[in-house]
Amino acid sequence: MLPISNKTISEIGSKEKYIRKDHYNSLKVWWARRPITAVRSILINEILRKNKNIKFKDSDQLVNELNPNNDIFLKFSDSYKTKDISVLDVFSGGGSIPFESSRLGCKTYSSELNPIASLLQETNFNFSKFQNYSETLKIEGDKVINNVEERLRYLYDLDGINPYVIFWGKTMKCNGCDTEMSLSRIKYLSKRKTKIIVLENGEVIQKKEASSERLKRGKTFDCGNCNHGHTFSDIKEYCKKNKLGSTPIAICYHPEGKKEYISISKSLNKKIDNLSKKIKGDLNDLKHLIPNESVVTKNGVINPTMYDLKKPNDFFNERQLLVLVTLIDEISKNYNENCEKYGLDYSKQIVLGLTSLIEFLVDWNSTGTMWISQNEQTGRSLAGPGVGMKWDYIEVNPFYQLGSNLRSKLTRVTNTFSQITLNNPINILKGSSTSLSIEDESIDVVLTDPPYFDSIDYTALSEFFRPWFEKLISNTYDSSINLKNDIKKEAIVQLSKTKENVRDSLHYQNLMRDIFKESKRVLKSDGKIIVMYSHKTMEGWEVIANSIKDSGLYVKSSYPLDMERAARPRAMSHQALNGVIIFELIKDKSKIQPVLIDIKDSFVSSDEFNKSHLPIYIASLACKEFSLSSLSFKESYDTIKSSFDAQETISFNSEKIDSLVKLYLDSLVKGNLEDVSKKELDLLQINNLISKSEVKPISEISTNDLNTKSEILEVLVDLFNDYRYNSSTRITLSDEVKSNAEVLFRYLGGSGLNTVKSRSFDVEKKTSRLIMSKLSEV
Q1: Helices (H), strands (E): how many in the chain?
Q2: Which of 221, 268, 357, 410 could form a disulfide with 141 if both were Cys (CB 3.0 to 4.6 A apart)?
Q3: Residues 629-654 pLDDT 10s
Q4: 677-681 — which CB contacts under 8 Å span 24+ positions?
Q5: Does the predicted model carry a pTM greater than 0.90?
Q6: Contacts of 710 (CB under 8 A, 6+ apart)
Q7: In this structure, which CATH number among 3.60.10.10, 3.40.50.150, 3.40.50.2300, 2.30.140.10 belongs to the domain 6-130+422-456+490-641?
Q8: 756: number of CA atoms within 13 Å, CB side?
Q9: What integer best gives the mean pLDDT of the chain?
Q10: DSSP structural state of residue 639
């Protein structure tokens, strides 16, 4: 029995995703970081195991609070001698694991290849060396912002209107008549239930209800002058030689404390256009701060997804670009002044702290910045895993008194720094984790969260920040700075149609193997390597299994945890797995129980297990079987899956399932109607559950067509339809209906994995897995 249960870790990890205030992850931008409370609990479990003592005092605060009082951390460290426990993260990225290891008082090593992530860690880990850092950063940051505002005040004085955001629509020259045509597709400025505001024919109109607004593939962008149609392919071709333009279309502001919208009149448009000459002049004065380099094309992340992105400054309109380079200029001036006041090291740390303001402008004030009409808020450009083409975007007024702005970002960062304390220095190791400057058998715990196969291209995303950081740093404390990542050493799979610089499955597998080998070298004989991993394809699991086995390590155990909000949009639209597997790897094979015992003692039927995690849990047990046996990975996987499928069949025969539900499930399991009796076939037909001699998927069933009374099937069909388009509804079911729902949706969701070539966007699977995650909460 774990001191902190899997269920508790899942609950606190999922809950943390809603927390923004004073959160470590709000200091600097990085992608796919695990919740710090969950990471802390995993480490606490390991510390208690090493102490052979599961008595755990002050557990409520230490486990459940984002930033417990530091006295509690110090008391825990003293009680369990954590300064004698060494922790290493070999894929430290955003630094959540080293951060919590240090707070718990452990001797901590943080290894990272990407220089942008290393810069992040220098910012977040080295601040504690300086007295009154948060207060000083606030003072100097306010000076910088005030100076930028003074220089650029003219940008946001629009005929007496002080805009919160300006809405822009992309434009291009028509292929038919060569006039400038609009590509704008924005319809809703507000899509709240009580406030539906649309933009129609250039006018702001209030409506009673909303309708669909999505532009479907195959539809054309029509020229308003000659009506010539342009497809997505036409625009891509145009962007090979040209840059898209943009035009202002609306403004949001707060005339009486509430958000109001106005369309861009001719006078406002002229005012904005007249400012362009001065903006160009100011940009010319700061041209030394604009990177003169090309953006590397990467399918699916940046070009050609963003069709005309050829240089870093193409990610901004000229107004946004001027704000960004003016900020860099003022931080540079501030650094020169601060060197005499605080000294070189302190001044450098202030510069690092203020890079968060650059991140804010890149992420929240670019041509990739969205407007979320459902809650009338700005949406990030770089939320990941990729950056999609935007036909409309918003320009944020970075000095506005409300909403997202430079001052609110600075306040959030400085408040967070004031709330956290590191209780042991963190050793930041820069470079590949295939070669660590750490002694043999000196590490107690390796805890790491590696890239998940092809899920996120961290280098491509960090490239949006990299050129601007280099300009700032070269203009302040290091003129020779180079923050480019060595992608040949980056453990990700880049699935690409081209064969140039391909990082394929073998590239990923070999790097992971070498990093696991190096982790094994530095690990103590009784140490443990804990790896977080998840993927929805067979290939993604087979490469991690091969990497583990080839490194000479063995899977001792595995278990799934929740790490995300099940209701997040990407889970709805992309069948994203909201769970992650925790692998425990060790050196000694003799200390591991057989996988068959794991299956027999499986906690799948307990409240500890989120049923939607079954596919990845089966895959993790296959990794264990593979590491222990002579079977191939596929043979291992098929063996494990067959055992669980046998348990599914037993569930289908439950007496709690009424005859119609049982018949429907049995027919789906068989996949055909050959063995169905005439009486059963008639029952299916009477209830319109058959189409073209096949059983209908649940997405095609209508409760209005059911002629046999089946309250359970009606509830399940309604539940499916609710969650097909809406992930936020709370599920309330009786025990009997819940039991039936678990059987049905567990089957529909499937226990099997997809493959890279046929990643399923099947509505039954993705909706069923979402419902299964919700049923675990009931």
Answers
A1: 26, 21
A2: 410
A3: 999 999 999 988 888 777 666 555 55
A4: none
A5: no
A6: 658, 660, 661, 687
A7: 3.40.50.150
A8: 14
A9: 87
A10: H
